Amino acid sequence: MNKEHQTVGATALSEAVVEAGRRSNRQTRSISERRYQALVEAMPAEGVWVASRSGEMLEDSPRFRRITGQSLDEYRGVGWMDALHPDDRLPTERKWAAALEDQQIYQNEYRVRTTNGAYRSFAAYGVPVIENGEVVEWMGTFTDIHAERVLGEANERLAPTLDQQTLLRSILAIAVRAVADSCSVEQMAEQGVVTMREATPETTDR
Fold it and tell me: In terms of CB atoms within 10 Å, which end of the chain has fewer, N or C?
């Protein structure tokens, strides 16, 4: 085999190796993307967010935008904070800035304005993605905790002042307004008698 053929063969082999590497990288990215998407869909959280190392939202978060009604341009950067309750924006900015500065886990709770103009409580959780000792981006989740918050506050407010039956009726009414079209509870007395109590929007408005 002459040198010309050897050069051509080496070049062809090199190109084949490079192309094989590219296919492998594409396949690896495709698998990673599918795994990421499957993880996102399987998570109990309402949605996932991705932010730059400086804290600006990079990728779309469709579930968050469906809740707030924001466009992608309105959501990007720090625009997502415009959907927070005015009283929660400054505390959120401070907590987010502290997490970025310390490169520590970000945890927060805030109220989000929904498409119907009402506010719902959410919990946010985020972690830095670190490569070679450097933060390259942040990833996190947000979870609807509105029902839990409403019921907890109602219990704290009502428990010291109401008898058991009145407290039960009040909690049922709050539950209907917060999370369901109707709600019922079976209550068993000491004698074994079961009493059914039910609340609907019509009964809670009385």
Answer: C
